[in-house]
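[Automated response] Your request has been received and processed.

Submitted sequence:
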Amino acid sequence: MEKDINKIYERLKRILKKFEKPLEPKMDSEKGYDLWSVKELVIDGRKRSEIFFASIVIQSKYVGFYYMPIYTDTNLKEIFKPELLKTLKGKACFHIKNLDDELEKQIRYALETGYKLYKKRAWI
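Generated structure:
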């Protein structure tokens, strides 16, 4: 079980980086990393040139994992297993203080599921 915040951040960043191309980072630093789908699209009748997908940010005592697909389909919450759900603080922010292989697997699965949802909606 990983408890070092910087090592947790690096492990999560490796997972997120697998979604680069077609997704693009706007922030890529030692403290934060995010991914966006940058393309012209319409969501709920509003034109947009991009949509946020996910990010990680080092905080003082945890790595914040922000998962935006949950805003577009609240049923996604049902895919979260108890280990991941207990780190959820709010609607789309997870506080990752410890990272073991099982939790990493659940985060990877959530990202893959969200990616498929965005692709299905032609947002990617």
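Summary generated for your ticket: The chain has a mean pLDDT of 92. The first strand starts at residue 32 and ends at 43.
If you did not submit this request, please reply to this message.
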